[in-house]
Specification:
Blueprint lengths: L5 E5 L19 E13 L5 E11 L3 E2 L2 E8 L2 E8 L3 E2 L5 E4 L7 E3 L1 E10 L6 E4 L15 E10 L2 E9 L4 E8 L6 E7 L7 E2 L8 E5 L22 E5 L6 E2 L16 E11 L2 E10 L6 E9 L7 E4 L9 H4 L12 E8 L3 E8 L3 E8 L5
Antiparallel strand pairs: 1-26, 2-3, 3-10, 4-5, 5-6, 7-8, 8-9, 10-11, 12-13, 13-14, 14-15, 16-17, 17-18, 18-19, 20-21, 21-22, 22-23, 24-25, 25-26
Length: 371
């Protein structure tokens, strides 16, 4: 698909690690593995605000026959070491513990969130707010704060993040009146969930959210079903955005007719259009180390978001190697685009995505695409 504007807006080279929350607190050299998966919203001054995930990694994680990782602890940071014989390092983003009996992993980086202010069109960086960066501050975030999604409901900004720790793999909520000064409200989903997206508006007087619980076991659909078993996009409702009840009906499910969306999860927070809620989500086709990530869309009923009115069979946004070619020496994954934000801009939407788990991409999508 051709877009009137489609470009990388922020890359690892745009990060000043001297202003990182980790600066001077880790006894090792670090670098930016990725600056990606940005939450997106519009500020009161008309500019856009991206909340960028910065994955800060050790420059030399392997030495002395051990692999090392960064961990937040008691207001500071420390380094942990595991013998190489005990781990699998095939994925550059993480390492897996061998012979544990179940999947246990650690990360090669620690993530924190950086507010980056863009102009109203999303084509230029106006200011990087290092003084407003969000870093781990609780034991349930000791391995990082990841993948912000920002929704504005009424006059309040709501931001969900994934908080990572050995204690749990949870979803946490931040709230703000201006999208720059955030209050940590704590854990809102206790189960492993990577993609909680709060709808930008109430449904029947309640907050609604898309969720994506994960697991290693899924029950089979009956033979001949139109659906494929696996991770799906579920729904939940809440009276206050803090206490969530899973919705009884399913949300968006993988279709049996294609492998391109065999695994799926939420992308940008759903926004209301004249036709219903527009949901941008990602489908993952099994391939290589992590699969091929593409962005798809669905229109959901405004009164019952479990009802899918229409959906795309063809991807809306795909990975674009032409965009990352100028920074190709930094690439460690390919075929990945991960959409994480959307803002209305009149005759088009401004869509923010993470490209190759490396950089922030801004795409203008004409409203006519959605019929």
């Amino acid at each position: 698909m051709t877009f009137s504007h489609d470009a990388l807006i922020f890359t690892p080279g745009d990060i000043d690690l001297a202003q990182s929350p980790l600066a001077g607190k880790v006894d090792a050299e670090t670098y930016v593995l990725g600056a990606f998966n940005p939450g997106l919203t519009r500020l009161a001054n008309g500019n856009l605000l991206m909340m960028v995930r910065v994955a800060e990694a050790l420059r030399t994680p392997i030495h002395d026959q051990h692999i090392h990782a960064i961990r937040w602890f008691d207001g500071g940071y420390c380094l942990d070491a595991w013998p190489l014989d005990f781990v699998d390092t095939a994925d550059p983003r993480k390492f897996m513990m061998r012979a544990a009996g179940w999947k246990i992993m650690a990360l090669t980086s620690l993530s924190w969130l950086l507010p980056v202010e863009l102009n109203a069109a999303g084509t230029k960086v106006e200011q990087v707010h290092y003084d407003k960066a969000i870093a781990p501050r609780a034991s349930y975030q000791c391995y990082g704060v990841e993948d912000a999604r920002i929704s504005k409901v009424g006059d309040r900004y709501l931001m969900t993040t994934c908080s990572v720790s050995p204690e749990r793999h949870s979803t946490t909520l931040y709230t703000s009146d201006n999208a720059l000064d955030w209050t940590l409200e704590g854990i809102v989903l206790d189960h492993q969930n990577k993609d909680m997206l709060i709808f930008e508006g109430l449904v029947g007087g309640k907050y609604f959210a898309q969720t994506r619980p994960l697991g290693d076991l899924y029950f089979a659909y009956p033979p001949g079903s139109e659906w494929r078993s696996g991770p799906s996009i579920n729904l939940a409702s809440s009276p206050d955005a803090l206490h969530w009840k899973p919705y009884d009906r399913p949300g968006i499910r993988p279709h049996a007719a294609t492998m391109a969306t065999a695994r799926m999860g939420g992308g940008a927070p759903p926004i209301l259009t004249p036709d219903g809620w527009l949901s941008l989500w990602h489908g993952v086709e099994p391939a290589g180390v992590v699969g091929i990530y593409r962005t798809y869309w669905s229109i959901l009923d405004r009164d019952d978001p479990s009802v899918v009115l229409r959906t795309s069979d063809a991807p809306l946004i795909e990975a674009n190697t032409a965009l990352t070619d100028p920074i190709k020496e930094l690439i460690y994954l390919d075929n990945v685009v991960f959409t994480t934000g959307i803002v209305d801009a009149g005759d088009h939407y401004i869509v923010a995505s993470g490209e190759a788990d490396l950089a922030c991409r801004v795409t203008w999508v004409a409203k006519g695409v959605f019929g």
